[in-house]
Amino acid sequence: STDLFGFFNDLLNAGSTGKHLYYRLDAHYSDLTDPLDLIIRAPFLAGFPVVDDVDQLRRSEATVNFELGWKGNGWDVAAGYTFYMIDFNDDIFEQANHKRNTGWLEFGIGLGGSGETRIYVRGEYSDLDFTEELLNNAEVWSGVLGVDGMLFSKKIRYDINAGYLNWDPQLTGVVGDTNDYSGGVGWGQIVYRPLMHRKMFLQLEGGRKVDWSAISNYRIDDTILFTFRDELMPERLDLDVTAQYSHHEQSEGPRWDRLELGFGLIYHPHRQVDVRLRYLYRQQDSDEDYEIENTAVIDGDVTTIATNGNFDQHVISLGVEVRF
């Protein structure tokens, strides 16, 4: 696969027009062929199509982020906007093609004289538009309350938040799934830097998120992730190792457990250029080896959703990140 890792990443990253006002703009584009979960919408009368060419999995993904913030004396406020789109080349995956617009607002207050502990509240709204109108569009509202800061010493930092999310399907598609989600979400992260004079760190994070699904209205993701990164050659070459376990549930459809183990190298030929080589092993086990849901008639054809949920993957990726 080819992943440009954000060719126009950080176009105006952390720019500033004064002591407390800052802005950030970044854009990412990827052209990928690594396997996703093989979730397809197929004409039932013609039989299920077979993915026999890796190019059938080719898709493009693009993201644009903009953030504007103000850091005052003991308080801060920021607002941002994100545009995301995914587009598959092959028609058998076209039900997943969609665009997403997200706006958010965050306000934080520092506690104590040092201001190292911060309490914040964040609200977010997203609008999902599935271009083929097979899956349901959705409006998503969420709000979290969080705290971040140092723990015991400057070597350990944490960020913990928890809140509420409502996933409201608009029932614009032909699928029969009418489920919505109204419940808890949250995320926690702790980072340990044993040597402050170098980039080495150990990071543990995890929690619950709710995101889009290619088979139903939404997907619940419960995840725990460990990351280790260190300098092999100072300012020139970094080692990156990750281990992740996650449990996923569709609003209507199969559930699966996924294990991912990865390691990679990050080479810095220039202060504004990173070259990344990475290997990832992924194992997924599903409670349904072959699931059929949401049969409907589209343009005179009986159409259904199908998924094959058990697989192993070996992914090698090479990418370049350029910062302007």
Features:
globular; disordered N terminus; mainly beta; 15-stranded antiparallel sheet; 324 residues; 0% helix
Element layout with pairings:
Blueprint (H helix, E strand, L loop, with lengths): L14 E2 L4 E12 L5 E6 L15 E13 L3 E14 L9 E14 L5 E14 L7 E14 L1 E17 L11 E12 L8 E11 L7 E15 L3 E14 L4 E16 L2 E14 L3 E9 L2 E8 L2 E12 L2
Antiparallel strand pairs: 1-2, 2-4, 3-17, 4-5, 5-6, 6-7, 7-8, 8-9, 9-10, 10-11, 11-12, 12-13, 13-14, 14-15, 15-18, 16-17
Can you offer a commentary on this structure?
- The protein has no helices and 18 strands.
- It has strands spanning 15-16, 21-32, 38-43, 59-71, 75-88, 98-111, 117-130, 138-151, 153-169, 181-192, 201-211, 219-233, 237-250, 255-270, 273-286, 290-298, 301-308, 311-322.
- What's the main sheet like? 15 strands, antiparallel
Taking Cα atoms only, what radius of gyration do you get, to the nearest Å?
Answer: 21 Å
Mean pLDDT across residues: 81
- Strand content is over 45%
How far the N terminus sits from the C terminus, by CA atoms, comes to 25 Å
- Overall 3D form: globular
Helices and strands: which structural class?
Answer: mainly beta
Oligomer: single chain
Arrangement of strands in the largest sheet: 1-2-4-5-6-7-8-9-10-11-12-13-14-15-18
Classify the helix fraction into a percent range: under 10%
Summarize the structure.
The protein has 324 residues and is mainly β.
